[in-house]
Write a structure and sequence with these properties.
Low-confidence stretches: 1-29, 38-61
Number of strands: 0
Shape: globular
Structural class: mainly alpha
Length: 221
């Protein structure tokens, strides 16, 4: 105990000052170290937050094109559906018109007094031949209708008409109704098919082969 007291009492002012300085320095360094650690942690958190924000931003950037792309696809799909619906409505109207036309032809073919109403030929046509012409018209309009609603391509229609042209009564019908087609709108489907038919008749008449099934160049759409 005496020795310990002597040791403490033996510490001079300079030693005490040195000890105080060392202690202060240690505390200062600890404080700096704590502030540095806090700063580092803050930087890390900030970076982490920034990274999270960046990730969120990236996700947002990715979501925007996806949303836009989805909307664009939905718009195109809606347009296709509207176009398909319009085609269906048009074909339904054409089919109804064709049915009514055929009904009228059937009545005229079965009643000479009604067939006389459709006698608009330039030459005198006997009643029996009138009914045959009405039936030829029904065959032609049926083929035209199939093309108009997409059931038969123009090339397929060309081959079908080439077969019909082998019948002389049909050829007489076509010649007797040439002035009927003159009143058609030149851009209409019926007028276009009529021109195909006229060209086919000319090609068949001028062909130098008996293989009529190869005569004529199929038209393009």
């Amino acid at each position: 105990m005496t020795t310990q007291k002597m040791s403490i009492r033996g510490v001079g002012p300079a030693a005490m000052a040195g000890l105080s300085f060392a202690t202060g320095t240690y505390l200062l360094l600890r404080s700096i170290d704590r502030r540095h650690s806090a700063h580092t942690t803050g930087t890390t958190d900030t970076a982490g937050t920034a990274g999270t924000a960046g990730t969120t931003g990236t996700t947002g950037t990715t979501d925007t094109p996806l949303t836009t792309g989805t909307t664009e696809r939905e718009r195109r799909e809606a347009e296709r559906e509207r176009a398909a619906l319009a085609v269906q409505r048009r074909n339904a109207a054409l089919t109804e018109q064709h049915r009514l036309h055929f009904d009228l032809l059937c009545k005229a073919m079965g009643d000479a007094s009604l067939a006389a109403v459709l006698n608009t030929y330039e030459e005198d046509v006997p009643p029996e031949r009138q009914r045959q012409f009405l039936f030829a018209n029904a065959l032609y309009i049926n083929a035209l209708h199939a093309h108009r609603i997409g059931a038969m391509t123009l090339q397929e229609l060309h081959g079908h008409l080439r077969v019909m042209c082998q019948n002389q009564i049909f050829r007489q019908y076509w010649d007797a109704t040439r002035h009927h087609r003159a009143s058609l709108d030149g851009s209409s489907d019926e007028a276009k098919v009529g021109r195909v038919m006229d060209r086919l008749v000319q090609e068949l008449d001028s062909a130098e082969t008996d293989e009529w099934w190869v005569v004529g160049e199929p038209p393009t759409e």
